[in-house]
Every structure is written in C-alpha cells, then in structure tokens.
Amino acid sequence: MARQGCGGHTAGLLLLLLLLLPRALLDGPLVFVALVFRHGDRAPLASYPTDPHKDAASTLWPRGLGQLTEEGVQQQLELGRFLRRRYKAFLSPEYRREEVYIRSTDFDRTLESAQAILAGLFPEASPRGSEADWRPIPVHTVPVAEDKLLRFPMRSCPRYQELLRESTEAAEYQEAVEGWTDFLSRLSNFTGLTLVGEPLRKAWKVLDTLICQRAHGLPLPPWASPDVLSTLGQISALDIRAHVGPPRAAEKAQLTGGILLDAILANFSRVQSLGLPLRMVLYSAHDSTLLALYGALGLYDGHTPPYAACLGFEFRSYVGDLEDEDGGNITISLFYRNETHRPPLSLSVPGCPAPCLLGRFRQLTAPARPPARGAICHGSSRPATAPATVPLLAGAVAVLAVLSLGLGLLAWRPSCLRALGGTV
Ligand SMILES: *[C@@H]1O[C@H](CO)[C@@H](O)[C@H](O)[C@H]1NC(C)=O
Ligand SMILES: *[C@@H]1O[C@H](CO)[C@@H](O)[C@H](O)[C@H]1NC(C)=O
Ligand SMILES: *[C@@H]1O[C@H](CO)[C@@H](O)[C@H](O)[C@H]1NC(C)=O
Ligand SMILES: *[C@@H]1O[C@H](CO)[C@@H](O)[C@H](O)[C@H]1NC(C)=O
C-alpha cells in the first residue's frame, strides 16, 4: 500500500501527506465491530499455606474467591460508557437484539462483567434508572466444559500438550528456569508450597494472590518485595510465552486463540453474505483468552491484560482505490484499551499496517486459524484418522469437543495480573 511519487514536493509536505493520506483514504464507515474483553477486578483465585490473610478471606472477599468485586463492576460500567461514546453514531441509541450479540464464558465474574458493560453501553439496561424503563439484555453462554470458543482445550488436547512440551524443553526455557532455581526454592520456603511439578504455574498463582491483595490495600508479607514480585512477573511471562509464542506459535494458535479469531471473521462473513443487521458482537472472557488471541495475531509482547482490558476489531468499508479481491472492500483495524485515561492503542498485525485490507488480514492470519477440516488435537503418536469435511468452525469445534470431553480444560487459569505498579 506504499504511496509513491510526489518527487517535486518538499520533505515536509511529503511527510504530511504520508501521515494524512492513508487514514483519510482508508477510514470508511464502520460496518461491524467485535470486542473481546477481560472481566473486572476480582478476588484472588486461591491462597497459599503461609498467606497472612488466609483466615480473613471470608471477610476480605465476602463474595468468595475468584468473584467480581464492586470495583470490578465499576470498571466494566466505565468500559461500557467508553463503548457508548465510541459507537454513538454506529449503534441505535437503545439496545436492539438484531444489532448486538453478547456471549460470555460461564463464570460468575465474566457473566456479571458482561451485564455491567451492557449497563454502561445501554443505559436502559442499568437497574439504576427507573424500574419502569429497565430493560434486561440477554448474555449467552455455554457450560465451561463445552466452551471451545473462549476457553481453550489445553490439558485435554494431546497435540497442544506436545507443542507445549516442545516449548518447555527448549534450551532457552530450560536456562531461564535453571536461573530461577534458588528463587523458587526460597519461594517454596516463603509460601509453604511445594513447587515441584509445575513450578512456574504455581509461582504465577502466588503472584495472582499477592497482586489481588495489594490492589485491595492489604499489606504483603515482608518477603514479597518489589524484586520478588518483578521476578514472579518474569516467570509468569515465560510461562505465557510458552503457551502462545514460538516455537510453532501458529499451530498453538490453531488450537487456542485462532479459533476465536476465526469465529470473529466468520461472524463478519455471515453478516455480510446474509446481509444481517448484526453490528456488534461482544465476548466476555479472561486474560487467557486475550493472551491466546494476541498469540494468534502474532502480537504477544509479554504484557498481561489488566482487568477490563478490551481488544476491538473494527471492520470498515473501504473507500480507497485499491481493490481487495479476497475480502471485498473492507478494512480491519484493531484497538486495545488497557488504560482508562488514555485513548486506546491502535494495533496492527505484523506485515499489515492498520487499517489492513481484510483479504490481506485473512491471508496473514490463515496459518494461525484452524484449517477448514478443523485443527487436529490428537498427538502425533496416534495415527491420524482423516476427519470428515465439515464447515470451517464447526469442524474445529467438533474435533476439539470430542477430544476434550470429560477432561480438565485449563492449562493456565485466568489471572488478575496487572502491570506491576499499576492501580486497580
Ligand atoms: C523456611 O526456612 C526456615 C529456615 O530454614 C524454616 O525455619 C522455616 O520453617 C521454613 N518455612 C517453611 C514454610 O517451610
Ligand atoms: C458468531 O460466532 C459465534 C461463535 O462461533 C456464534 O455462536 C454466533 O452465532 C455467531 N454469530 C453470527 C451472526 O455469525
Ligand atoms: C470495490 O470498490 C470498487 C470501486 O469502488 C468497485 O468497482 C468494486 O466492485 C468493489 N469490489 C467489491 C468486491 O465489492
Ligand atoms: C497497555 O498495553 C501496552 C502494549 O502492550 C503496554 O505497553 C502497557 O504497559 C499496557 N498498560 C497497562 C496499564 O497494562
């Protein structure tokens, strides 16, 4: 999409054109939006044996471990109000069921977060208005064990386990873990946890507990110094990178975040080909969902999404002169909102500066999305049985569904990690 020519212009004018032209030409009217966000502030998921706040847990977190807090509700309301401002001209002033579709994972905190966002986005859905005007809005979900869209098969998917093993056996990973041997044995002593088996994951859980407590103004035990927290943050980032990054990041994505990415693209294709009035889909999920999506987009940068972080996909009709045969005249641009007081960051996938033509976006992300017959979950040790040809997403979902039945789904749990030092 490089623009050439302008030989006689001054450098300044050329720069100005380069800065202004692409946006001016490419930013056509919005046609569809997909949003994926993390739930709001929550109680820690767990405790550890020496946790000084362990016994007070039922007073500190009266709604229970892992539950959304009042602060979490406020964060989601605020995100909803931001969305109302951003899409004021795009959505009808009141909720219309044919325009907006909301799906959540089947956790209290994500279901509640979805409702809080909707109350911010559609004031009539806020119970704070008058009772006569209150209009509840449906939030769809499926049982956690059947959720192949927003919770990914991890432990239950032998192929994914193979890929993960390849990452954790890599020299770089092993060296990092070795470097933390002393740290982990001290951590084990501090916390009373035995860190054998999955030391990094257990270390992450400790970090989750500490960060939640700190965010709620609780004093941390003396050993939990800034240095210790920062090392725990690095450990957690290594663990996440092993799950969503290289080697074979694209194949990992086909079994995780690529499924959601594919569903979003399929949502838009359906809207377009059937001429549906649907304008927006909202997916209420977890940091693990966003991280997997980041992995599928090739954008994971070591940063963990804070509460209420929101990744948006905006589809616009393209008003430039370049025709995009694959994608129709549509561009896609991504934004990421992880801070309340700043405009969202605009993101672009490697190889396609925003706004990216949809056809090109599809091409670039194809390796990270499940193939048409569905991604293969069984390990390479088992002989491959050719799955019947089924439509794109249905295929992926069916294969994953069969293979993950009855097995534990979560290789890493949603966390309440925040950028260290950030305020909640
Ligand atoms: C940690 O180590 C000290 C000194 O060796 C010991 O007294 C203490 O009991 C240990 N704490 C835990 C929780 O294992
Ligand atoms: C969007 O995708 C989700 C997940 O596949 C699906 O449940 C929903 O029905 C889709 N909506 C449309 C309009 O395609
Ligand atoms: C894209 O726009 C051009 C010019 O506006 C038009 O000629 C072409 O048919 C459009 N292509 C598609 C696939 O809609
Ligand atoms: C927001 O995301 C950007 C990009 O990943 C990161 O650099 C920044 O630290 C994040 N801010 C917070 C508060 O998480």
Automatic annotation (TrEMBL):
The UniProt entry, under InterPro entries, shows: Acid_Pase_AS, His_Pase_clade-2, His_PPase_superfam, Histidine_acid_phosphatase
User: What is the uppermost EC class here?
Assistant: hydrolase
MF term (GO), any: protein tyrosine phosphatase activity
Taxonomy, superkingdom: Eukaryota
Span of the signal peptide = 1-26
Q: Name one GO cellular component term.
A: postsynaptic membrane
> What is a biological process (GO) this protein takes part in?
lysosome organization
Pfam families linked to this entry: His_Phos_2 (PF00328)
Annotated EC: 3.1.3.2
PROSITE patterns, alphabetized: HIS_ACID_PHOSPHAT_1, HIS_ACID_PHOSPHAT_2
Q: Which residues form a coiled coil?
A: none
Q: What keywords appear on the UniProt entry?
A: Glycoprotein, Hydrolase, Membrane, Signal, Transmembrane, Transmembrane helix
Listed under catalytic activity are:
a phosphate monoester + H2O = an alcohol + phosphate
Annotated membrane-spanning segments are 390-412
Q: Which family does it belong to?
A: Belongs to the histidine acid phosphatase family.
Q: What is this protein called?
A: acid phosphatase
User: What is the species of this protein?
Assistant: Cavia porcellus
List the taxonomic lineage.
Eukaryota, Metazoa, Chordata, Craniata, Vertebrata
